[in-house]
TrEMBL record:
This is Agmatine deiminase. Keywords: Hydrolase. GO terms for molecular function: agmatine deiminase activity; protein-arginine deiminase activity. It holds the Pfam family PAD_porph. PANTHER family: AGMATINE DEIMINASE-RELATED (PTHR31377). GO terms for biological process: putrescine biosynthetic process. Coiled coil: none annotated. InterPro entries: Peptidyl-Arg-deiminase_porph (IPR007466).
């Protein structure tokens, strides 16, 4: 699922550049699986459809819903399987703790359900949660950060034990793995895990690392690496940990450093899409590391410098949906 940018979003000053990234994403995704594109209105849909057709993109379904922004990872539904059947969870989205406009984005899933897009049942959950705040191994363990989930602008009435209980019940997981360290400069999500550390398989975690003592991230990411080394699999074995470099620093027009991270990769059927940042050395290292982590998948680099101008990257603008959850699509 992609929620396509338009002139009414913060992307307006760089719309051409960001639409090119979205087009490349659509091309890469549809080589391997179907794509749902959410458009603001019919005129928007017609323009995107023409653009994608001109770039040879097929296997696309379009849906209409007004939007404030385009971060589908955080406003899209989160899929789970129950008795081998897909189900969609529609969490409350509040603009990362009220930092940005969100009312339209919070209603997108309901619009899609009302339009008959979903073949799977969708349940609204009265709990604030963004998809970028959690990462699962698909085998009972869920990785997240205290900095994000315990921020009082989300679920202020719940303590850590209560939040953990909700996550266990909602996702059917048996373990919550909490991290207390690591956050990227320029990140406005309060430390989403998908910028920091990701499962590649149930025994492997790739994570953002920094080997420059003069970099502002050095101490925090070193402390996070120590936490990751202390984690254990259900068997008691340590995780196989794969460090991903930080790319060279990028800044916005005000001088704020932007949260460029290779941990924001996207796993799709048969491939892994990896953000790149015009840093030939670090890009190559990250692509090589993830090729090692996913030897049976195609590794596809997608230039994401335009995306980080709004403080997110490739995984942030996408949301995978379980097979069988969309009407008329595999």
């Amino acid at each position: 699922m992609l929620t396509w940018p338009h002139p009414g979003t913060a992307w307006a000053p760089q719309l051409a550049a960001v639409e090119q990234v979205y087009t490349e994403l659509a091309q890469a995704i549809t080589r391997h699986e179907s794509l749902l594109v959410v458009c603001r209105d019919e005129a928007h849909r017609e323009g995107i459809a023409g653009r994608l057709k001109a770039h040879g993109v097929e296997h696309v379904r379009f849906a209409l819903a007004p939007s404030n922004d385009t971060w589908a990872r955080d406003h899209g539904p989160i899929g789970v399987y129950e008795r081998d059947r897909p189900r969609l969870l529609d969490f409350v989205f509040n603009g990362w703790g009220g930092k940005h406009a969100y009312v339209l984005d919070d209603a997108i899933n309901a619009h899609l359900a009302e339009a008959g897009c979903f073949a799977a049942p969708m349940e609204h959950v009265d709990f604030i949660l963004e998809g970028g705040a959690i990462d699962s191994d698909g085998a009972g363990s869920l990785l997240t950060t205290r900095h994000c989930l315990m921020t009082p602008t989300r679920n202020a009435t719940l303590d850590e034990a209560a939040i953990e209980a909700r996550l266990r019940a909602l996702f059917g997981v048996s373990r919550i793995l909490w991290l207390s360290h690591g956050e990227l400069a320029g990140d406005d999500t309060d430390g989403h895990i998908d910028t920091l550390a990701r499962f590649c398989d149930p025994g492997t975690i790739a994570y953002a690392s920094c080997d420059d003592p003069d970099d502002e991230h050095f101490a925090g990411l070193a402390a996070m690496a120590e936490e990751l080394r202390a984690l254990r699999q259900p068997s008691g074995a340590p995780y196989r940990l794969l460090p991903l470099p930080l790319p060279r620093a990028h800044h916005d027009a005000t001088g704020q450093r932007l949260p460029a991270t290779y941990a924001n990769f996207l796993i799709i059927n048969g491939a892994v899409l990896v953000p790149t940042y015009e840093d030939s050395s670090a890009d190559a290292r990250a692509l090589g590391t993830l090729a090692e982590a996913f030897p049976d998948r195609e590794i596809i680099g997608i230039g994401c410098v335009p995306l980080i101008q709004q403080y997110g990257s490739l995984h942030c603008v996408t949301m995978q949906l379980p097979a069988g959850s969309l009407v008329g699509m595999d």
